[in-house]
Amino acid sequence: MIAAAGLVVGGGLLVFLPAVSQPYLAVALVSVGYGPGALCLPLLYAAVSMIAPDGMQSTVLGILVALQALSGLIAPALTGLLVENADTPAAGFASAFQICEFAALVGGLVVAAVVRPERDRDAVHAAALTG
Description:
Blueprint: H1 2-14, H2 23-38, H3 40-51, H4 57-85, H5 89-114, H6 117-130
Helix pairs in contact: 1-2, 1-3, 1-5, 3-4, 3-6, 4-5
């Protein structure tokens, strides 16, 4: 639930970013808005390690890190397309931030509704024993 709250709070703060015209306030809002989301990464690694069957933690964490690395390929390309096709570069960057905000809010709500590490661990371990 801490991870979900971090995503929702961070995404919720960033919703206001396009309305901010003061550069210092925008930098502060970005810093504070992305901070709670950063709390999610160590919690995600811990949850995945707890859920993955014995002997599979390194494989599952490797897949997770590989998927995270894909964002480093996709996000700059998507941002470049948005900036290039917007009326102004500022409008393109605003769109990019809004997509990130929306993803954080939706992701946080999905995590809150679906993820239960203890329940998921028990289900995965029970399936590993019977399968």
